[in-house]
Amino acid sequence: MSFWTAYAAAERLPEELGIAADEAWAASAAERAHFEQQAQRHSLQVLSAFRRHHVSETDLLPSSGYGYHDQGRDKLEAIYAAVFGAEAALVRPQIVSGTHAISLMLFGCLRPGDELLVATGDPYDSLHGLLGLVPGTRGSLAEWGVTCRIVPWPERGLPDPATVAAAIGPQTRAVFLQRSRGYSQRPTIPVRHLGELIAAVQQTRPDIYCLVDNCYGEFVEDIEPGHVGADLVAGSLIKNPGGGLATTGGYVAGRLELVERAAACLTAPGVGREIGPVTGSLKREFFQGLLLAPAHVGQALQGAAFAAHFFAMLGLPTDPGPGGWRGDLIQAVATGSREGLIRFCQGLQAAAPIDSYVQPEPWAMPGYEHEVIMAAGTFTQGSTMELSADGPLRPPYTAYMQGGLQAVGVAAACLHAAAAMAAGGVLPTRRPANAAATADNGEGGR
Ligand SMILES: *Cc1c(COP(=O)(O)O)cnc(C)c1O
């Protein structure tokens, strides 16, 4: 008996799911090998940056109070800068989320009267308030007299450099680029294409800042936006770069002057990044998390590659599809029905290391048009470096799954999700077809 068939038998899951999993594991072998090798390359790059910066045991110890002369924190930030192709970085537990990091990036660079040009279509949900797209949001960029204009995502393919450059207006001070698709129906942007957009902006107006939302993208490709000219990037430590070990935190990385501007927003002008303690075990988490991040991102990607094959074999459209290009951690699976999505999330939750006995239910989350359901059995609340899944209860009832520190754990969770669907009679009969999970996305960036 093969590995997954044996697992299915041991867990009393339908035998055909075990057989499908064995086939999907074999079918995803080349992709998994690719992500494994890429993780190894990135791991060595991070390790070498640790050595160059002489990380010592005392650098892992906490600082307190103002956090002046925190050498460990400074080394950590220098390593982030090196890894992300930046001059400097701000890596802090006081940055509480990805949205907060992006907020620091924008408030650092924009002043009243400036315009922010969003070049990548409708931005990630949590940014709408910040950008002034939700009227009345207290403290938004709009309240500070910064306007925001969105270049719509094109009908086909990726944002066109010439179109973005042509959209620049006299007040445009910064161009915002969201690398990951997030939970929208558009492809993730390859870093090299971000480079083309940045080059077009800089040829038109060299004084404009190119700011990148790097959430979910770190260590997925061979290069980072900083390597193709991004002026500043921002992200969350409970996603990729925290490696699943960081229990909080965020970062910005880029040109020194702009990192200092963001630091002035985080603490206060004049003291900037000189202060800010890193207490408790956070510095150890940040260092060790970064060291392990490439490997853990690699595991999540290998799990996602398996999931795309597995669910497609079971007749559920997946995006990226089997063998499809990946630029972030997100895997969409169109479950096809309300009951299917609910059971998918419940099955996935049942396979988690934490809270496996809890049954997620749909709820009317404030700010969302439709009910949503979320599965997350994670060590860190809301961590999407760890395996989690969620989706709005509307057709095609797409489950967005991401993360996972172990590819085998992701694969096992897929089996349990499919088994929960089968038990409810909402798994289509097996067929080898695949279509894009979300209606209009066939480009995948490549
Ligand atoms: C997660 C995410 C954010 C916001 O991060 P939070 O930590 O949830 O605030 C912004 N943009 C993208 C593309 C993301 O994936």
Provide a descriptive summary of the structure in words.
- The chain has 446 residues and is of the alpha/beta class.
- The protein is built from 11 helices and 12 strands.
- The strands form 2 sheets. Strands 1-7-6-5-4-2-3 form a 7-stranded mixed beta sheet, with helices on both faces. Strands 8-9-12-11-10 form a 5-stranded antiparallel beta sheet, with helices on one face.
- A hairpin with a 5-residue loop joins β11 and β12.
- The longest helix is centred in the C-terminal third of the chain and has 32 residues, at 282-313.
- The chain is globular.
- The two termini are 38 Å apart.
- The structure holds pyridoxal-5'-phosphate.
- Pyridoxal-5'-phosphate binds at residues 97-99, 124, 126, 178, 180, 182, 213, 215-216, 236.
Short description:
With 446 residues, this protein is of the alpha/beta class.
Give the arrangement of secondary structure elements:
Elements: H1 3-10, H2 15-27, H3 29-52, H4 71-83, E1 88-92, H5 98-109, E2 115-118, E3 147-150, H6 161-167, E4 172-178, H7 191-204, E5 209-213, E6 232-236, E7 250-254, H8 256-266, H9 282-313, E8 318-319, E9 331-334, H10 338-350, E10 372-376, E11 388-392, E12 398-402, H11 407-423
Parallel strand pairs: 2-3, 2-4, 4-5, 5-6
Antiparallel strand pairs: 1-7, 6-7, 8-9, 9-12, 10-11, 11-12
Helix pairs in contact: 1-2, 2-9, 2-11, 3-4, 3-9, 4-9, 5-8, 6-7, 9-11, 10-11
The structure holds pyridoxal-5'-phosphate.
Pyridoxal-5'-phosphate binds next to helix 5.
